[in-house]
């Protein structure tokens, strides 16, 4: 039994619902594994996949999105032992997914509402998804730091392209595998490992990105400058360290990735 | 089965398409669900629950006596501090489990709901059970977000909730009551209706499977006396009732002076208003859905059809034609549109009111259909020549009977629609958005459906004006009835 | 004359169409429904690569779709381009299966009225029993209802004894209101049948579109007493969809419409799926597609 040669895992990027190598063919070492060193072209492909998936994801009912996020939590719970992160990190991540699964059909009345305008119109404001959201995940905690920004973006019906922790990318790449057994449609979440210094600017400078959330605590000025080229929305935040910090201010996280649409309609026959 | 369409011969009919009850596993006898398990009634009795389509026994259940009700309240009280002390996330996770389990056992629940209550399997399968799961799922997500749903106020649960639900949507009403109560940290004693206890007891099994801590929920079927006992129990902190307006008034009176928060969801005589610029064919579908869905056993049923006079003849003609295509019969047949009347008593009430309609001079048309010999049935019925003063226009029939009145102008429609002590729902059919919103604003109804009818969602508040009750279920407003938000004055009535 | 569109509520109509799709059609009802559907099929080939050989094979299949199941009836018609009408006519002689031809610069209709009339005349002269024309979407979308109707009247005129189906090309019209309006225009102009689509573009006979057209027919027949038929074409490729169509017809217009004189399904691959499903009702087994010849 001890003579049995184990079959080693090949880690791949998760783009458009598929596991792909970096188009650059480059790799980095992480422990005993080679992991893809993502390139700006991988970022380009991921954003294209996220855009393609955006209409279908936003077109689902809020309830359905909640169910999918909850199933994502179910899947993560069942694969918890396979994720190469601390148990506390994994459990906090599961609970964060559960928390945001519950927001999908609740943030609308909280962030939106009826505007009692001084004219015979029904006026209402609705928070809508901003579109494709970029996430630059912190190095630590390697799973929760990512999930804490992923979950609110998804709950608000956006699709995501995430640059994973540079120090510890394996838990993020494992998350891609978990998504394969949840019902998250392909392209809704895209995960890229590699050098943050290459990938974050590529992401921030992509004009088709609607918003970028930077949870690393660094690269702020560079990201701000690149985002300004196409008025991409930016949110800088410190990394979530536990469940409490990850869910301390859900409204700010949700607001950062939504657009408020106000409509007016006459009242009167 | 044959329908009105016998006027031409049938070229192609649907063969019987029975939903099989084979996969349903029912116990021989159900005890009362108290403190986490099924228990023999102490001073209650065992009763058989009947299938109103066949008059056969569905299951034997226990009905609670006064002592049983007391035990149930005590169990809820004992469990309440521990339940409220859990984090919202943890409470939510129990409720998410319940939602998922309802989905897993959906088919079984749907079949049993149709057997015990008489509604078509298509409705229990496509409406009742999915909405029940959705309700638990929705409120699971509120459990750790309560202050966001209460405008930032610091909140606490009320304590022990006594909840009484009706026979028209047994499982769904149980979900509407339990889910928000539990999410807010309350524990509950639920009293299902006399004629439809079985799916609530299956829900009890699901609560066990979800490992809900014992005592958080008690499910104690019983008759009206058991409900009256529950309401008078000294150690409850909240009462929620869905049922008839007359019983609702009794409950409100019984609670006088006790300072106990109350929500009431009562009867209605809702107006379904069709303007001349409506999409008429879709309006007819909406009328049919409004009054024949669940055999008209719906508190918000569109039982008064108000048609603008310029299109009245056309609409009535289309409606009558459409009614002739309704398939009335075996609730377990997947092609059945209209099922059985829930009980002999209800059938007698409908029959009496319909007779009064004819006596008072309205013109009655009833669809001709083959009805089974056994069971309780009432064929879809249309009354024209109805005056607002007729009993069939004023009193809730709670059956598949629609009364047609006409109007000339928008103002007249609004005035007629509002001329009732009830105020639960209304329907507005027009292609003009601005008119739809103006009329909606003028109607004294808690739920206004525009170009649709009988649409429910856990995120959308539901409840009545005037004698249709007060308090809301669904959405963030559905949290309010189960929370105390003025912590300095615990006696305040919400 | 300013166009006044009728009111169709999209959410309502799609909900009703979907609910009717939940009718459970089993056992004898399914068998009977499949046979009925086969009898309503206009077996169609409209390819640039069509040849007399291909068309003759198709005609043989149209007459006897499944030699091993003789209770399966012939289809209603074979539908081809005008250049293949003569071949079709000859192959179907004496069988009761009709020869249908598209015409009027099918599928786009982007040609002069004269060309469209010539096209129709040739098909009729070659022996077509039925003509499937396309409305001018160009005229419709510019609001020129009069011209839409005028073209139909002129084509009907040169049809002689052939019956005229008017294709609305619903996926290009933009809304259900437009579909209903176009249905009315076509019926007022003398169409014998109104038809959803050419099958060459976009979505075809979706349940919502079919229901809108059936309701339009119902109102027209009630008002004028003249019976107009309905053909659902485009996208009806599986038995379930075909049976759904039958349910829509039955529950909107009634059983008297369940005949190929009033309802047709334009299809090519549907026929084999109907045969496979029929076989399953007999044997209880899922079939192998290759067991049925394409032509």
In a few lines, what is going on in this structure?
The complex is a heterotrimer of chains A (269), B (494) and C (295). Chain B has helices spanning 66-85, 88-104, 106-117, 121-140, 146-149, 170-183, 198-209, 224-232, 245-254, 280-292, 309-323, 344-359, 391-394, 410-418, 433-442, and strands at 29-30, 32-34, 37-39, 45-51, 56-63, 156-157, 160-164, 187-191, 217-219, 238-242, 262-265, 271-274, 304-308, 363-366, 381-384, 401-407, 425-429, 447-450, 469-470, 483-484.
Helix and strand layout, with pairings?
The complex is a heterotrimer of chains A (269), B (494) and C (295).
Chain A: E1 13-15, E2 18-20, E3 27-30, E4 33-36, H1 40-59, H2 62-78, H3 87-101, H4 107-111, E5 113-115, E6 121-129, E7 132-136, H5 144-155, E8 159-163, H6 170-181, E9 189-192, H7 196-204, E10 211-214, H8 220-228, E11 233-236, H9 243-246, H10 250-255, E12 258-266
Parallel strand pairs in A: 7-8, 7-10, 8-9, 10-11
Antiparallel strand pairs in A: 1-2, 3-4, 5-6, 6-12
Helix pairs in contact in A: 1-7, 2-3, 3-5
Chain B: E1 29-30, E2 32-34, E3 37-39, E4 45-51, E5 56-63, H1 66-85, H2 88-104, H3 106-117, H4 121-140, H5 146-149, E6 156-157, E7 160-164, H6 170-183, E8 187-191, H7 198-209, E9 217-219, H8 224-232, E10 238-242, H9 245-254, E11 262-265, E12 271-274, H10 280-292, E13 304-308, H11 309-323, H12 344-359, E14 363-366, E15 381-384, H13 391-394, E16 401-407, H14 410-418, E17 425-429, H15 433-442, E18 447-450, E19 469-470, E20 483-484
Parallel strand pairs in B: 1-5, 7-8, 7-10, 8-9, 10-11, 12-13, 12-17, 13-16, 15-16, 17-18
Antiparallel strand pairs in B: 2-3, 4-5, 6-20, 11-19, 14-15
Helix pairs in contact in B: 2-4, 3-4, 4-6, 10-11
Chain C: H1 10-20, H2 27-40, E1 41-44, H3 52-63, E2 77-80, H4 85-92, E3 98-102, H5 113-125, E4 130-134, H6 137-141, H7 145-159, E5 163-167, H8 176-188, E6 193-195, H9 207-224, E7 229-233, H10 239-252, E8 263-267, H11 270-283
Parallel strand pairs in C: 1-2, 1-8, 2-3, 3-4, 4-5, 5-6, 6-7, 7-8
Helix pairs in contact in C: 1-9, 2-10, 2-11, 3-4, 5-7, 8-9, 9-10
